Give the backbone structure.
Amino acid sequence: MVEKTIHIQNSMGLHARPAARFVKIASKYPCHIEITKDDLTVDGKSILGVMSLAAEKGSVVTIRADGDKEQEAVESLIILLNEIYDEEEIQK
């Protein structure tokens, strides 16, 4: 099992677009992926689960992966969550 804790950097938090990107990336990996904020842990491959975390900027989240390619999965998701999203660029 691989686990990493980070702060959400996106000024808008983990809202619909980045949550969808998170799930899309997580779904590429064969391992089980979870994301936790406070006392709520959800399936990292579930858009509704990820959005239910209501992770705003500065929130602390923990990503856990267990299984094949777990290290690669966590690293990819950390890169995504560390990005600063430019909402105007995404909408173009």
The chain is about 40% helix and 25% strand. Confidence is low (pLDDT under 50) at residues 86-90.
